[in-house]
Design goal:
Elements lengths: L1 E5 L3 H13 L3 E5 L2 H10 L4 E4 L2 E2 L2 E2 H10 L6 E5 L4 H9 L4 E4 L4 H15 L6 E4 L2 E4 L4 E4 L2 E2 L4 H12 L7 H8 L10 H13 L4 E4 L3 E4 L2
Parallel strand pairs: 1-2, 1-3, 3-6, 6-7
Antiparallel strand pairs: 4-5, 8-9, 9-10, 10-11, 12-13
Helix pairs in contact: 6-8
Protein name: Two-component system, OmpR family, response regulator
GO molecular function, one term: transcription cis-regulatory region binding
Organism: Litoreibacter ascidiaceicola
């Protein structure tokens, strides 16, 4: 899952990024609205974590701009503004959730999962594919009750393939989904992830369409 974090306090952003990356999210962090605006014009995100008091303006204006352009990406406000009127205003302007600072890192993680499930209308995130039981919400995959451990990048690839099951996913789309903007990507990185996934999950699970991309077999 790709997360856009807009927060100007490094002391707060650092632990939050570390916590979310440990939960297999790709986090891109910007400290100004101008940088964030450039990011949303270039990429699609699964969720936005938005501070309100930023060096170059009020985060609510950024939120209003997103909704005015019909960008429906879930937005969770993270702020010290704790008045009831502030919460109501943020939600009325289009925020999907409103979290008061200081917050618990696990709570933010749980709220991310909640708003993303809500936005995609997914009642269940558990999939049975061949002899594999895959739960995207909890990042668990097992075969015959035996857990199979995947790395964060392997999870990212698998999630994209599952959500586009029976469709060909281009290599570039996979790179975009699992690597942060500006992160160095080796030319054969996706091929390496595919090789390890086939070793762990089964060699016939993922088909390579040469020159086109990859497909998860239903």
């Amino acid at each position: 899952m790709r997360v856009l974090l807009i927060e100007d306090e490094a002391a707060l952003a650092g632990p939050l990024i570390e916590h979310l990356e440990a939960d297999f999210h790709v986090v891109e962090w910007f400290s100004t609205l101008d940088e964030a605006e450039s990011a949303v014009r270039a990429l699609e995100y699964d969720v936005v974590l938005l501070d309100l008091h930023l060096p170059d303006g009020d985060g609510l204006l950024f939120l209003q701009s997103l909704r005015a352009r019909r960008i429906r990406t879930p937005v969770i406000i993270l702020t010290a503004r704790d008045k009831i009127s502030d919460r109501i205003n943020g939600l009325n302007l289009g925020a999907d959730d409103y979290v008061i600072k200081p917050f618990d890192l696990d709570e933010v993680k749980a709220r991310i999962h909640t708003v993303c499930r809500r936005s995609t209308d997914q009642i269940s995130q558990t999939f049975l594919i061949h002899d594999l039981n895959i739960c995207l919400a909890d990042h668990r995959v097992s075969r015959s009750g035996q857990a199979i451990k995947l790395t964060a990048k392997e999870w990212g690839v698998l999630e994209v393939l599952i959500r586009r099951q029976a469709k060909i996913v281009p290599k570039a789309a996979l790179e975009l989904a699992i690597y942060a903007h500006g992160e160095e990507v080796e030319s054969n990185a996706i091929e390496a992830h595919m090789s390890r996934l086939r070793t762990k999950l089964g060699k016939d699970l993922i088909i390579t369409h040469r020159g086109l991309g990859y497909e998860l077999v239903a």
